[in-house]
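Troubleshooting entry. Yesterday's outputs looked truncated, so today I'm pasting the complete records for two proteins to confirm everything comes through intact. If either block looks cut off, that's the bug. Protein one:
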Amino acid sequence: MGKQGDTEGAEGATEDSTKAIFEETPLERAVFTYISYAILIFFGYIADFLRKIRLKSEGPYGAALKKDDLFKMGLDFERFYSRNLYRRVRDCWNRPVCSTPGPYIDLVDRYSEDDNWTFKNTGTITHTMNLGSYNYLGFGECRGRCAEAATRATYEYGVGCCSSRRDLGTLDIHKVLEAKVAKFLHKDDAIIFGMGFATNSTNLPALLGKGSLLVSDELNHASLVLGARLSGAQIKVFKHNNMKDLESVLRRSIIEGQPITHRPWKKILIVVEGIYSMEGSMANLPAIIALKKKYKAYLYIDEAHSIGAMGKTGRGVVEFWGVDPADIDIMMGTFTKSFGSCGGYIAASYAIINHLRQYSHSATYGASMSATCVQQTLSVLEIMLGEDGTDEGMRRIAQLAENARYFRKRLREMGFIIYGNDVTPVVPMLIFEPGKVTMFSREMLRRKISVVVVGFPATTIVESRSRMCLSALHTREMLDLALKEIDEVGDMLVMKKHQRLLSLS
């Protein structure tokens, strides 16, 4: 039986839609996965031994072998893994793209003559259905109202400011976007940054320091992890979306106080994501807010994947759960997904935003967001709010929600193990064995469908998966075609949970 995250009902959220499902890895699959990795590692060590005694030389490491640099510097497991496992299947990742990430995408065809050490282009492209981009609402386009407005902004303001926000990098259009983001999220004020990753990694250190406690979900994004480490605050981790464990961490931390001195914490900040991009699950906001209030902590939520993609009007999981935005102390998000742009924002009280304007490393040292990207974001916000005089924004938001429910339901009916909540557009489908991960990617590409596959160390060893992302521009016919191909490949690779890897009859 699968385990489910603790959930509570909320306005606009049904009981089924708020259940995050994480089925246990079947024992048979786990055993075969471990055996597969053991075999790959065994042959990897043999290959390294042959390289060391000069019986095997391949790829760009040939020159290094003469100086023995490879074996002086590259014997740690990370390089071993990249050299002997990842290199064999590099063709499944980093495929060059030569189109916008719409419902279809063009890939540059390539081949390797040296076992994937290097690649060469064939000069041709392959037109494929796109199930791997974060273009949730489909606004990442090279034509249309948003693209035309962004082009005009480029002519008016130039391609960049060549300065940080604290110096000469603030334009009137930056202030317009900040005001609109704050209004959209029902917060006092907002500040925008040129890079989504840096919005987390450079601002958490401005909010926390020594004597502070940061309580982080175990599956938080790398940008949050980096920001937490750079802050100098004490970090404690709780199990993913597990409210009992979160409360235990909070209670124990308050009782014990700071290490050595046992003084009270200067501040306690709970950090979670709206949608977890590798799990397809949502933060249990009502329960987290209740604990935040009970233990007098602050709450920081990263809505990179949920802003625009969740809620009736695209205001993220805060709107989906029906909670009061005032209960979220710091709301962070990015413009790289639903808005088809780049950069990120933080929305909070006047005091917090004024503090960040003065002390944020990104505001002080980072390049400000280009006017082109600012206008792209502004145009999408106007469409989402209906300020363009159409219902296009609401229609796309509703279509995305419908696509997510339909696609997830059909995959589960076929027998695949799917993680996360039924309403999120991120759809992780478990594959398990490393050989099947690469075969699934290659076979889907052969059928003209682009998917993203993820394995160790981005996931645990026994939870390799394909992470598919849906868009409002996917039609029912497109999804049915993709489902048909996935169903056939799933049968071919014995990926479904009712299928046995070994026949005991």
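Protein two, checking that the full record survives here as well:
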Amino acid sequence: FFFFFFFQAEDGIRDVERSRGLGDVYKRQVSTQSTWERHGFPHSSADQLNVIFDIIGTPNEEEKSFVTDAKALEYLKTFTVRPRVDFNETYPAAGKDAIDLINKMLLFNPYFRITVEEILAHPFFKSIRESANEFVANKPVELAFEKEGDLDATRLRNLFIEEINFYKTKTNKELSC
């Protein structure tokens, strides 16, 4: 769950970077809906920021410092202030290192969030990391679909199905050997 959340947040930040700001992402989200009331905007339980803020708490001024779009800042001010979840209470059986890692990954401001390199070097992974087997790519990974521009839901769904089928076939072949 936590790695999914972290990478989902990263995807959201990439969307923000491609647009003119968080306000544009929100504006696009709202403009695709026929009415605010039908979907509970703003602040329904289906509102992604509402769900995120239930976990990480509502961001304070310092945490919002990377947001530059005035409409986005106004929107963020409309959320009810709530505290960050205490992961020690939520996951009492988790070790100190696991809680520390979760707390460093689940931050609203991407500039305050732990980096991938710091995650890999974190004590939580000390017993399983084999740095001798790691390598750093000499250029960024390019995925063909990223060159297609904006993907509609049908195209995105088809790409997911292709990927699932590829690995499903690959796994079946490996199991039969």
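Both blocks look complete. Sanity check on protein two: The two ends are 32 Å apart (CA to CA).
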